[in-house]
Design brief:
The protein is of the alpha+beta class. It is 25% helix and 24% strand. It is built from nine helices and 17 strands.
Length: 406
């Protein structure tokens, strides 16, 4: 059975949204809207792919699927990180089928066309004397790296990256992400539209009744969350103390609302996302003497949100798989010299967010099931507890209006 959706355009559906209200059901269910989301956002914006320390050695690679585009990111023999469309220039077979790996060369499994790590075609058998290897190198994808974060863009012309780089680097540099490794990675497929996944992340209105593990340490006060509301005294105290120690903390958001960085205090003097609020890792990521630095948060629509603590960090990436499926990848980052069972216990490190992620999955999936009802009418956002999710929906609507009206 298929969902009955209207034949209205995406722009028309967006224009029907009431200010301060949730999106209409067709904006989550329609295959045409999903196609517009891919073409106007996912295929044109910078998408978080992974971390540079995941591909430290020449030939190490990682792959991801951004809408229609399979992409491979590889470190070349000179140490540079490059991104290519993961499709052979012969007949289109994917070169790398695994999520991660290491190769000497990029070799097509179909007919053994062989590419150097810089994308140049080195070998193609039986192509005749008039065939020129130089005309058939891999198609590049825009690629930028900032403080270990690899971003890629599949558009022919990518948006400016410099402003985001400058804003992000200021906040993240003191956390020494370049000296990290992935202690654990989880991949969760949520049966819901990608917008629902990000909406759920952008509010904690639901936390009290759904996230007992997270609320051992996470501060759910919306004024303290760093978006809207008055500046809370506890927030100001944290900002001033951390900034005095060399940790930028005061909220920064770009004028379009696409990305934001801010530091928040944790609950009851917690210093990490653990069941007792104590550090999960013996070593620290920052070089300050401040033992309680709260959590530095940053998001960048449409693909990532992140948390940086004193002892570890978490990066989250979402990728749309279809109108009703989204891949959520979470990585727990620790100092590269830390050793499991010596410097950290894996269960202690991951317990809070493994539970929280699964709880969020259930919330997204139940919301997606519910709004599929023809009776669904979008309700108003709470001006007290849902200003973050309203900001995301506003960004989505404003972005799509701008792009679809051109």
């Amino acid at each position: 059975m298929t969902d009955q959706v209207t034949d209205q355009t995406t722009l028309a559906l967006i224009n029907q949204r009431k200010p301060g209200h949730a999106l209409g059901r067709d904006l989550y269910l329609s295959a045409d809207v999903y196609r517009d989301d891919l073409e106007q956002i996912w295929h044109k914006e910078w998408i978080f792919a992974g971390h540079s320390f995941e591909i430290e050695q020449p030939g190490e690679y990682l792959t991801l699927q951004i809408g229609d585009f399979p992409v491979v990111i590889v470190r070349d023999s000179q140490g540079h990180i490059r991104a290519f469309h993961n499709a052979c220039r012969h007949r289109g077979s994917r070169l790398c089928a695994e999520n991660k790996g290491k190769v000497a060369k990029l070799v097509c499994p179909y007919h053994r066309w062989t590419y150097d790590l810089d994308g140049k075609l080195m070998f193609a058998a039986n192509m005749g004397e008039h065939f020129n290897n130089d005309d058939h190198g891999l198609m590049p994808v825009h690629c930028e790296v900032v403080n270990s974060y690899i971003y890629v863009c599949t558009a022919e012309q990518a948006p400016d990256f410099a402003e985001f780089r400058q804003a992000l680097s200021k906040f993240i540099t003191p956390h020494n992400l370049d000296n990290c490794k992935v202690a654990f990675e989880s991949n969760l497929i949520e049966k819901g539209n990608w917008k629902l996944v990000f909406e759920n992340n952008r509010e904690c209105y639901h936390c009290d009744s759904n996230h007992p593990e997270l609320l051992k340490s996470f501060m759910e006060n919306p004024a303290v969350a760093g978006v809207g509301g008055n500046e809370d005294p506890e927030l100001i105290e944290l900002w001033e103390r951390c900034e005095a120690a060399g940790l930028p903390s005061r909220m920064h958001m770009d004028e379009n609302g696409q990305y934001r960085m801010t530091r928040i205090p944790l609950f009851n003097n917690s210093v990490s996302y653990t069941m007792d609020g104590k550090p999960a890792v013996n070593s620290r990521l920052d070089n300050t003497d401040e033992q309680n630095i709260g959590a530095l948060l940053y998001f960048n629509y449409p693909s990532t949100w992140n948390h940086f603590l004193g002892d570890h960090a978490l990066s989250f990436r979402i990728l749309p798989l279809g109108p009703g499926e989204t891949l959520v990848t979470t990585k727990w980052l620790v100092h590269k010299d830390s050793q499991v069972d010596r410097d950290y216990d894996l269960d202690t490190l991951t317990k809070v967010w493994l539970a929280t992620n699964d709880q969020d999955r259930q919330l997204v999936e139940e919301t997606f099931r519910g709004l599929r009802s023809p009776s669904y009418v979008p309700g108003p956002f709470s001006e007290i507890a849902e200003n973050g999710v309203c900001q995301f929906v506003d960004w989505y609507c404003d972005t799509m209006k701008s792009k679809l009206s051109r």
